[in-house]
Design brief:
It is a single chain. By secondary structure, the chain is of the alpha+beta class. It folds into two domains: 17-61; 74-306, Jelly Rolls (Sandwich), CATH 2.60.120.200. It has helices at 17-48, 51-61, 216-231, and strands at 74-76, 87-90, 97-100, 103-109, 123-126, 135-144, 150-159, 162-173, 176-187, 196-203, 234-241, 244-253, 263-273, 280-287, 295-306. Strands 1, 3, 4, 6, 11, 12, 13 and 15 form an eight-stranded antiparallel β-sheet that branches. It is globular, with a radius of gyration of 28 Å.
C-alpha cells in the first residue's frame, strides 16, 4: 500500500499462540450455539408456513424457476386434437378422456374420483400460478347424471388436503335425486393434523330451482332439470372477492308450472374464506361413493379465468 507502512506479522496486535489456543474451543462452541439457535428459529418459522410457501422456499433453495403467473383473461375452448400443453393431467388414465373438436369428454366410475382423494383420476390442472386479486374461474359443459351420485369439481387445488372448489353434484335420498351447489374448502390448520373440510351447500331442489320433489309434479320437474344438465348444459363458477370464495352455477331451466319460471338463472352456494392464494386452477368429473358400478359422463367445452368485468 503506497503512503502507509505495512503492519509487520510480529506486531503487538497479534494474539499470542497460548492465548489463541485457549480462545479457540470457547469461540467454536459459541459459534455452533449461534448456528443452532438460527436453525431452530428457521425450523419454527417453516412449521408456520403453508405447504405452498414451504414448496416455494424449497424451489428457491434448489434454484428452480417459480411458476409463471397466469395472464388474465385466460380462455381455452379445447380446440384441436388433444389437450394444450398448458394442461397437466394428474393420475392420468387415458382410456377415460379424449379432447377433440372443441370438446373434452371425460368419464368416471367406481365412486372414488373427487378433489379430496389423493388417487383421483384425471384431474385437469392448469400450469401456472394464479395472480393476486379477485377473479372468476368458469367451466362450461354438460353432465349426464345417470347414477344419482354424479359430480363436477372445479377450483384451486394444491393437493387432496388443500383446495377450494365449486362443487356441482347430484345426491340421491328418499324422494329421489336432487341437485346441489356447494363451496368446499379443505385446508390443514396444523401440519401434524388432518385437513379440516368445510362445505357450504345449497339443495337446488328444495326451493331455489325446484320447490319440492316429494310430490308428483315436483319430482317430474326435477327430473327435467337433471336431464337438461346434459341437453342444455351448465356453467360452473368459482368467484373470489377479497378473502371470500363462492360457488355459482348457471342453468337453463325448463318452463314449468306454478313457481317454476324457467329460463337462464344463476344459483349460489355459501361463502368460505381463505387468508392467502394457493394452488393451481383445476377441474374434473367425479362421483359420490355410493355410485357403485355406474358410469358418469361429462363433456366440457370451455374453461376461463377473468377479472370481474373482463370480457
Amino acid at each position: 500500500m503506497s503512503g502507509a507502512a505495512a503492519i509487520p506479522r510480529s506486531s503487538s496486535l497479534a494474539i499470542s499462540s497460548p492465548l489463541r489456543g485457549m480462545l479457540r474451543p470457547s469461540f467454536i462452541l459459541t459459534l455452533l450455539a449461534g448456528v443452532a439457535f438460527v436453525n431452530a428459529g428457521a425450523d419454527a418459522r417453516a412449521q408456520m408456513l403453508s405447504k405452498e410457501e414451504q414448496a416455494r422456499l424449497a424451489a428457491a433453495d434448489e434454484g428452480k424457476t417459480p411458476a409463471t403467473a397466469i395472464a388474465l383473461p385466460f380462455e381455452d375452448a379445447f380446440e384441436g386434437d388433444g389437450l394444450a400443453a398448458h394442461w397437466q393431467v394428474l393420475n392420468e388414465d387415458r382410456d377415460r378422456y379424449v379432447a377433440e373438436r372443441g370438446m373434452l369428454l371425460a368419464i368416471t366410475s367406481g365412486g372414488r374420483d373427487g378433489f379430496d382423494n389423493v388417487d383421483a383420476r384425471n384431474i385437469y390442472q392448469l400450469q401456472g400460478a394464479m395472480p393476486d386479486g379477485d377473479f372468476d374461474i368458469s367451466l362450461g359443459g354438460r353432465l349426464d347424471a345417470k347414477t344419482g351420485f354424479d359430480e363436477v369439481w372445479m377450483g384451486l387445488r394444491e393437493s387432496d388436503e388443500n383446495f377450494v372448489a365449486a362443487h356441482l353434484y347430484v345426491h340421491t335420498k328418499g324422494c329421489g335425486p336432487a341437485l346441489y351447489i356447494s363451496t368446499v374448502a379443505n385446508q390443514p390448520l396444523n401440519p401434524e393434523e388432518p385437513a379440516v373440510p368445510s362445505a357450504m351447500s345449497v339443495n337446488l331442489f328444495d326451493g331455489p330451482a325446484v320447490g319440492k320433489i316429494c310430490n308428483k309434479t315436483g319430482r317430474a320437474y326435477g327430473d327435467r332439470v337433471l336431464a337438461d344438465l346434459y341437453e342444455k348444459g351448465f356453467v360452473l363458477t368459482l368467484s373470489r372477492r377479497g378473502l371470500r370464495y363462492q360457488a355459482k352455477v348457471t342453468l337453463d331451466l325448463p318452463a314449468g308450472e306454478g313457481e317454476a319460471v324457467g329460463g337462464v338463472q344463476e344459483f349460489s352456494g355459501g361463502r368460505v374464506a381463505r387468508m392467502a392464494g394457493f394452488g393451481s386452477p383445476a377441474f374434473m368429473v367425479g362421483q359420490g361413493k355410493k355410485a357403485k358400478g355406474g358410469e358418469t359422463l361429462a363433456e366440457f367445452d370451455r374453461f376461463s379465468i377473468k377479472r370481474p368485468g373482463q370480457q
